[in-house]
Amino acid sequence: MSDLEQLAIAFLKACRDHDIMAATAESCTGGMIAAALTDIAGSSSVVDRGFVTYSNEAKMEMLGVSGATLDAYGAVSRETAYEMAAGALSRSRAGIAMAVTGVAGPDGGSPEKPVGLVWFGLAIKDWPIITESHVFENNGRDFIRRETVRTALEMGLRELG
């Protein structure tokens, strides 16, 4: 069993223990977090939905991310991750929502937002939204996306205790 599979199983168990459902809002991972969760048999009792919002339009339409936020800070920002997590929570039946937005590469990086930068948002019903960023080593697109999935699941587990 892979370490991602073990993390997904642990996250699903934590959600069951807290009697909450989960939602994901994903940009750079394109649904990989939801896939990691739904690869586990029985996950339908915990996973409510996943939003794949690769474009700015999708972030605005599906999650309610503000156009002003995207204009001012860009898609890869603390502010956007925050609004993605808030939108996924409010537009689902979930009690926890994980959001990710980043630069998976190989192109698209800049000095301010290098390849490997990912912003994470985590919203839990009735708790303040948490955001954090990581700059993963640029070992290729697949590596950055896998590490993003791992980090999101670890963050969810950490906050669920």
Automatic annotation (TrEMBL):
<protein>
    <submittedName>
        <fullName>CinA family protein</fullName>
    </submittedName>
</protein>
<dbReference type="InterPro" id="IPR036653">
    <property type="entry name" value="CinA-like_C"/>
</dbReference>
<dbReference type="InterPro" id="IPR008136">
    <property type="entry name" value="CinA_C"/>
</dbReference>
<feature type="domain" description="CinA C-terminal">
    <location>
        <begin position="6"/>
        <end position="156"/>
    </location>
</feature>
<dbReference type="Pfam" id="PF02464">
    <property type="entry name" value="CinA"/>
</dbReference>
